[in-house]
């Protein structure tokens, strides 16, 4: 594979490699709506959607038009542009959990900056995160639970100083007792509790609303910043993301993916008071040469305007539910050890009987093994899922009922294939 000469593993982001499913990654040539074509001319219905950003599908007309007309006027100025104001104003008008926002260029940058903001605002150092949540490749957050003491983390990447790891506390998801114990143990030292309110990077680990509300209460009581990393859930579960879905006001929110309409955009936001800590208003430094890039802002605005239309999210949910229910009914009828979870237009296939999986350690270990033949079978049928059993899938507004019906048949056949080999 030629790309292996240029890039580590032949890719520019590790999850694109087909390591866990075998074979070579597909090289994509173009996409339109819910369909993509690879370099060999094979056509697929795409349920990866660039890992979430493409909620309108590929090459949406309004988004493409916004990109082209804006790019023709100049790609970047390193100075304020009207497009930044327009996207910010549109988001703030439609999102009651935000007062001020700062645009950056990726979800990682958003999470990293949000952590710095929380530390600057509270004057504390420690970060509490949850096992199984991903917040981009931020040093302080590439930490997983260690063996032994529940709160003693170990880094999940080489190159992270132990001194950084020591500032990060890791607790299991959906476990009020473990959370309370950690807060008690580090009372007065925790700057921020960071969570994906709908954890969707290690399967779809839907949290109990009671747990999320508990985090809110404890953070308020203890003067800790509650950070909702809504890089996936933001503008996905509804315009107001998981905050709106659960009706919980976090202190700081991080965004990425959908917010840029397929262009590289991230953002973090909070109350005007907390955001006043950010430079040049306040002492917390954060900057970006290409932040608020006008082409990316225009793409984001074009996409979010579609999302804000009445009935947009209901229709996404309807299609997703139709697909998920039919596949689950087939699996149940055949008695397969299988469950397809979904929330809004996010879905996850799990080779498990459990009706609810809320924590990393509840995911069965052989899930990945069964996913590989499942994925391969679907590729041959013209269905593209992200190449890992721990990744979720996405339904976009561009998926038609015909796409959904074809997917139902193919997913059911793929299950028969996996279980009757
Ligand atoms: C994708 C993701 C990130 C990282 O965003 P990038 O744009 O890939 O840097 C951070 N947090 C969550 C919850 C994500 O899903």
Q: Tell me the overall shape.
A: globular
**Largest sheet, spatial ordering of strands:** 4-12-11-10-9-5-8
CATH topology of the largest domain, by name, is Aspartate Aminotransferase, domain 2
The first-level CATH class name of the largest domain: Alpha Beta
In what range is the share of β-strand residues? 15-25%
Number of helices: 13
Specify Rg, calculated over alpha carbons.
Answer: 21 Å
What's the CATH H-level homologous superfamily of the largest domain?
Type I PLP-dependent aspartate aminotransferase-like (Major domain)
Mean pLDDT, as a whole number? 96
How would you portray this structure in words?
This protein is an alpha/beta fold and about 425 residues long. The chain folds into two domains: about 1-60 and about 310-420, Aspartate Aminotransferase, domain 1 (Alpha-Beta Complex); about 75-305, Aspartate Aminotransferase, domain 2 (3-Layer(aba) Sandwich). The chain has helices at about 5, 60-70, 80-95, 105-120, 160-165, 175-185, 210-220, 240-245, 270-275, 295-305, 310-335, 365-380, 400-420; strands at about 30, 35-40, 45, 100-105, 125-130, 145, 155, 170, 190-195, 225-230, 250-255, 265-270, 340-345, 345-350, 385, 395. The strands form four sheets. A seven-stranded mixed sheet has the order 4-12-11-10-9-5-8, sandwiched between helices. It has a four-stranded mixed sheet with strand order 1-2-3-15. Strand 2 and strand 3 (about 45) form a beta hairpin. The protein is globular, with a radius of gyration of 21 Å. The model has no long low-confidence stretch (mean pLDDT about 95). The structure holds pyridoxal-5'-phosphate.
């Amino acid at each position: 594979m030629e790309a292996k000469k240029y890039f580590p593993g032949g890719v520019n982001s590790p999850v694109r490699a087909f390591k866990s499913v075998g074979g070579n990654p597909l090289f994509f040539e173009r996409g339109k709506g819910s369909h993509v074509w690879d370099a060999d001319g094979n056509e697929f219905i795409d349920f990866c959607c660039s890992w979430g950003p493409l909620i309108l599908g590929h090459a949406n007309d309004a988004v493409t038009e916004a990109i082209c007309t804006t790019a023709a006027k100049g790609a970047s100025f390193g100075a304020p542009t009207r497009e930044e104001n327009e996207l910010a104003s549109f988001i703030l008008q439609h999102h009651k959990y935000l007062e001020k926002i700062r645009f950056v260029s990726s979800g990682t940058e958003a999470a990293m900056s949000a952590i710095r903001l929380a530390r600057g605002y509270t004057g504390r150092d420690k970060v509490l995160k949850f096992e199984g949540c991903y917040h981009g490749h931020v040093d302080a957050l590439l930490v997983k639970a260690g063996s032994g003491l529940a709160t003693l983390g170990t880094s999940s990447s080489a190159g992270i100083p132990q001194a950084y790891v020591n500032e990060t506390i890791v607790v299991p998801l959906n476990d009020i007792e473990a959370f309370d114990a950690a807060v008690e143990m580090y009372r007065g030292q925790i700057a921020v509790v960071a969570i994906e309110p709908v954890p969707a990077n290690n399967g779809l680990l839907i949290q109990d609303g009671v747990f999320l509300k508990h985090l809110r209460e404890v953070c308020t009581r203890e003067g800790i910043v509650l950070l909702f990393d809504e890089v996936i859930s933001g503008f996905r579960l509804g315009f107001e993301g998981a905050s709106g879905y659960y009706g919980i006001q976090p202190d700081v929110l991080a965004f990425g993916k959908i917010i840029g309409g397929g262009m590289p955009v991230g953002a973090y936001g909070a109350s005007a008071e907390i955001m006043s800590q950010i430079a040049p208003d306040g002492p917390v430094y954060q900057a970006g040469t290409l932040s608020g890039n006008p082409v990316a802002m225009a793409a984001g605005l074009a996409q979010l305007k579609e999302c804000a239309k009445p009935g947009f999210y209901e229709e996404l949910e309807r299609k997703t539910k139709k697909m998920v229910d039919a596949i689950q009914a087939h699996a149940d009828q055949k008695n397969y050890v299988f469950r397809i979870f979904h929330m809004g237009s996010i879905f996850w296939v799990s080779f498990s009987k459990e009706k609810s999986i809320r924590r990393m350690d509840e995911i069965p270990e052989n899930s990945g093994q069964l996913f590989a033949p499942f994925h391969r079978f679907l590729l041959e049928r013209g269905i593209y899922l992200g190449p890992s059993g721990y990744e979720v899938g996405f339904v976009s507004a561009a998926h038609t009922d015909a796409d959904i019906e074809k997917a139902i048949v193919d997913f059911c056949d793929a299950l028969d294939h996996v279980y009757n080999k």
